[in-house]
Amino acid sequence: MIDVKHVTKRFGEGQTAVTALGDISLAIPEGSFFTLLGPSGCGKTTLLRLIAGFELPTEGEIALDGDSIGHLAPNNRPVNTVFQSYALFPHMSVARNVGFGLEMLKRPKAEIEATIHEMLELVQLGEFASRRVDQLSGGQQQRVALARALAPRPKVLLLDEPLSALDLKLRKGMQSELKRLQNETGITFVFVTHDQGEALAMSDQIAVMSAGAVRQVGTPEEIYTAPQSRFVADFIGDTNIVNATLLGFDGDKAKIRFGEGTPLTVQTASTSLTPGAVHVALRPETIDVVDEGSDRALLRGAVVDSTYFGAGSQMLVRLDDGVDVHVQVATSRAIGARVGLECDTSMLHVLED
Amino acid sequence: MAKFMSLFRRSTGSRELRRQPLFTGMSWLVLVFLYAPIAVLVVFSFNDNRSVVRWTEFSLRWYAAALENDDIRRSAMISIQVAFTATVFSTVIATMAALATTRGGVYRGRAAAIALINQPLMIPEIVTAIATLAFFSILRQLTGVTGIGWLILAHTVFCVPFAYMPIRARLSDMSVTYEAAAADLYASPWQAFRHVTLPLLMPGVMAGAMLAFVVSLDDVIITLLVAGPGETTLPIYILGQIRRGVTPEVNAVSTILIGLTVAMVTLTFFLQRKQK
Question: Do the beta carbons of residue A163 and residue A174 sit within 8 Å?
Fold first, then answer.
């Protein structure tokens, strides 16, 4: 279990100081596949480097299984990293790269040999032990980097956008491979990415970050279906964000209405919002297109675009207040047609800004 | 010095320049003036005649004479002894300086440190020579120590910036992620240097060492002023001989020196290319 407690990281001094992380607290459960997700510059890589020990926190503390590690040098932390650029040592064979960590720990030769063999088998590179690293493809180098970082059996494996240099097909394969490795080894994986698809597919838990702060922590399902803020809803993909009026609260539910429509009781990210204009998340797959005049219609607008994708069509409907909404339908309507949108109100979700 | 500096500049796109009128003509003219005298010297070292202007027949007699000359052999040994020792010391110092200026993080005075290390390249050698002579005279008197150590010390000092350039260039190009990876894999700072940084830096270190060796081997001015009796290096010996007129024997020794220098510079060039 990694405990990040009130960590702040500033680069530079005085006037020119840049705050990369502002008072972050995070608990990463032992043995989980934990993803730090966010756009570039959000501080996710800085947080990873703080856990690895390549940077020291300006304020705050990082603890691993209760022991404070925030001030230790990287070589004194039971934490290994898979670098974005892999950083395999070009002057060593694949086997020596994999054995490097154990060699530095002065483990017995026989143990090192056995572990190299085991690790290369684990990443399916058994026959490549004596190769030079520059004779390997990008995907193979990636797996050597994984084997090298796993060989010393760290408590935590840090992965810094390790799949970003691979092409799409290879990336899909590596996603399931990483998931398998995590299951087999039981080591805590902390994975940094800006790709929400990757995060949703692989993680046990996701921390969505922006501008040096953690915006939401949850399972992929929670993040996807119940985004707390407009930022998270926007970042996690194709969610529609529409305007509504907040009337008040009913227990832990919010009462809202669209335009002058009937009041609805829906889920909310927070019960401390001030009544008035709010944003509501609306997933494309929960929307049905009905006739404009239908009394089931909650929102009304005109079709401005339609894209056929085989299994159905994706329509873009411009609401009367000018907001665009994506809708997935079996049969599309003509462009310019007026339509009404009905949706499952239990899937509506009021967002914090 | 300029010829060494040019080794570290990457070739810039010169396709446009090549189309300029006079470019080819000028280039050849410059090359001829640079290398024709050397070519003449080399050719006449193989001349079976006392004259250094009139060709008669091919012969290796001046090489044989040079190799049998005890003064030449003695001064060659001193040159090699000084150059080798100065190379080892200056390369070690230059490597440490390069590490401090590329891997020590950003600190106040780093730019000044780099400038100070390179500055000797810009100071006229005669100034350095006179300063060294005066300074060493004081030290010799104070300590009472004499011997070839002073000459080696002087050579070590002026070789440092030459060794520093390629080592620093190599380190600047080298990603710090390798060292981060080593530290991440439980290497102590010393282990990371020993197993990762130094092996990757080796082409730069070799290039720096070879430049230092050549510069030391070639040096006249500082050596002339600092060297004590019995510390005559090969260039100083040649200079002494020249006063009595150029002899084919001197041509032969010079040709050997040129050959050695060319071999070193070529090797440096290929080492630098390999690391790219």
Answer: yes
Per-residue pLDDT at A188: 92
Q: Which two tokens stand for residue A48?
A: 């990873």
Q: Which two tokens stand for residue A128?
A: 């490549």
Query: How many beta-carbon pairs below 8 A join chains A and B?
Result: 61
User: Distance (Å, rounded) from C-alpha A275 to C-alpha A247?
Assistant: 5
pTM: 0.77
Tokens of B157: 């000092």
DSSP 8-state code for residue B196: I
Does A90 reach chain B within 8 Å, measured CB to CB? yes
A32 shares its domain with A168: yes
Q: SS3 sequence, A215-273?
A: EEEECHHHHHHCCCEHHHHHHCCCCEEEEEEEEEEECCEEEEECCCCCCEEEEECCCCC
The superfamily (CATH) of domain B2-13+69-274 is MetI-like (1.10.3720.10)
> What domain range is A274 assigned to?
238-351
ipTM above 0.90, yes or no: no
Domain boundary among A225, A246, A268: A225
Mapping DSSP onto H, E and C, the string for A300-343 reads EEEEEEEEECCCCEEEEEEECCCCEEEEEECCCCCCCCEEEEEE
Q: How far apart are CA B238 and CA B250, in angstroms?
A: 6
Instruction: State which H helix or E strand residue A159 sits in.
Output: strand A156-160
Q: Which of A51, A75, A86, A161 to mutate to test the interface with B (most CBs of B within 10 A)?
A: A75
Residues A250 and A212 in one domain: no
Cβ–Cβ of B186/A83 closer than 8 Å? no
CATH of the domain at A337: 2.40.50.140
Q: Note the pLDDT tens digit of each residue in A230-256.
A: 888 888 877 888 888 888 888 888 888
Q: What pLDDT, in 10s, does the model give residues A83-102? A: 988 999 999 999 999 999 99
Q: Which two tokens stand for residue A142?
A: 């990636």
Set of chain B residues whose Cβ sits within 8 Å of the Cβ of A104: 182, 185-188, 191, 195
If asked whether residues A211 and A287 sit together in one domain, one would say no
Those residues of chain B whose CB sits closer than 8 Å to some CB in chain A are 175, 177-178, 180-188, 191-192, 195-196, 199-200
